[in-house]
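Q: My labmate handed me this sequence with no annotations at all. I'd like to see what the chain might look like in three dimensions before we decide whether it's worth expressing. Could you predict it?
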Amino acid sequence: MEEIKTRIRQWAHDLGFQEVGFSNLDLTAHEDYLRTWLSNGFHGSMTYMTRNQDLRIHPQELLTGSMSAIAVRMDYLPENGHQRIRSSLKSKHLAYISRYALGRDYHKVIRAKLKRLANQINEHITRENLGPFYSRACTDSAPVLEKHLAERSGLGWIGKNTLLMNRSAGSWFFLGELLTNLPLAQASESPSNHCGSCTACLSVCPTQAIVAPYVLDARKCISYLTIENRGTIPKALRSAIGNRIFGCDDCQLVCPWNRYAQASQEIDFQTRHKLDNATLLELFQWSESEFSTKTEGSAIRRTGYEGWLRNIAIALGNAPGSTTIQKSLIAKQPDCSEMVAEHIQWAIHEQADKLSG
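A: Here is what I predict for the chain of 357 residues:
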């Protein structure tokens, strides 16, 4: 198994993964946390989180006979990432899109690479007559507590912002797993936590969604509000959203460990359609067909066109007073759904207050 693990690390590296770890599938220690989090309603409208709870705790039931997980991570931070993030957030006329969504949908990229890794393992196992091999690729798609599997595999620790942190890479990376029947994992030790007394992520969160260290109330999180949430965004939280129209990276931006984050070398994660430098008004003018075309193969598709307009309307309401913005909002309102129109009306009032003041 040690020889196979060495080969797997090399194959994974050749595929573009930055690090590989191996974990057993015992996640029972996290059962109480998961059930408490759900009972507190912190999942919001993500009802899928309440389904398959047993599978999340017992991932071996997702693949009969599975014994371990091969956990991988892949960097996604663009070149000059932190500088560009600060610049975008400072300019209230630019649209801010979470860095993970600027390129091709990571689900597609990671899953394809995991399947290629599985094929390489299978070819080796077959060639060496080492017995049957089977696996299942997961990347934020199956009911798996992937951060905990990655943590147990040695890829890092779960930080106070609930993201996986790595001492040499920060947190700007995606995770993926191969559940497999191979007995690759050694006995897992409790991971070392290196957050210390730092509370930067709790303090910087625009909506105070990190309600306690290691506890996120998704109902307040801008990523949830602008992506997973399909309905109205509470008025009390709209101003804090600023110009963030898809996700939020603030807790990563201030994390001291992210000074070690590396720029991604993955071509598929390079920015598409200049979305890291697009204005709010430019994106607000997209038609539904244009949205569909320009977000093809992108994680941005998840918010849908209505969510897209809703989010940009809020950002336009938060922008400095502008007659051009006011006219654009008024022109768009008649053609929108009732839900979107309500957010546009809010933005119109916000703009009117600024222009009159």
